[in-house]
């Protein structure tokens, strides 16, 4: 384990120190190594791999086995960052006992540092059971993509009084259930600010304004690898274009006989060929 490993205590302490938490997703060893070199605090093996890796519209079909597969690859990078994995839809819905069994499985088989569970007040019993089993939990309230059918789509949550009250209650409940931090997704900036002031654990926003204790984004959005252009993201690179350009140049070099050259070839004593 790296000496200055980020732990749940490092993250909890950020509420008081006010040093912002920087979190990002990664789904394989190569990118986990790169984002870790960039000194992020948290790497999330998000079930957004449904969209970024598997070409699916929704995160609902993602399985435990798929999450374990990707989380294990990320852990091979031996990151200094705290690594968390999403509990996929269906793994925690059948109540605390089943949720603990699945959390233990994912925690044991992948070696991650924490799990993330989407869900508010209704999921509080499940979250406290998983924490009781000594598995650190990140909460996730506001827009919860696993519940897109119930929420009526992927849209901003909590604009009206009742909905805002519900999200505040959800955030309070998951903090009381023992989460060491929570994701606030797609909630209006003033509501995220109020929640951040009221809950005792750090909030990590995505589309929730700058007053959260930290921020998380999907890596493919940061790198310009995804086709979606969302209001709450920014592209810090254009890797889609660079990838197309690089592979086109590779294809052109092959077609024009410019690659490989002698420099890229292995050599031998050619007199041996006479004996063949
Ligand atoms: O699955 C995911 O990537 C997430 C984050 C964007 C918060 O849940």
Notes on the structure:
With 276 residues, the protein is of the alpha/beta class. It has 2 domains: 8-237, Phosphoenolpyruvate-binding domains (TIM Barrel, Alpha-Beta Barrel); 242-275, no CATH class. The protein contains 11 helices and 8 strands. It has helices at 8-17, 29-37, 49-52, 64-75, 96-110, 124-132, 148-151, 161-176, 189-198, 219-222, 239-255; strands at 21-25, 42-45, 82-86, 114-118, 137-142, 181-185, 203-206, 214-217. An 8-stranded parallel β-barrel has the order 1-2-3-4-5-6-7-8, surrounded by 7 helices. Helix 4 (64-75) packs parallel to helix 5, helix 5 packs across helix 6 and helix 8 (161-176) runs parallel beside helix 9. It is elongated, with a radius of gyration of 22 Å. The model has no long low-confidence stretch (mean pLDDT 96). The site of 3-methyl-2-oxobutanoic acid has 11 residues, from strand 6. Residues 25, 44, 46-48, 86, 183, 185, 206, 216, 218 line the site of 3-methyl-2-oxobutanoic acid.
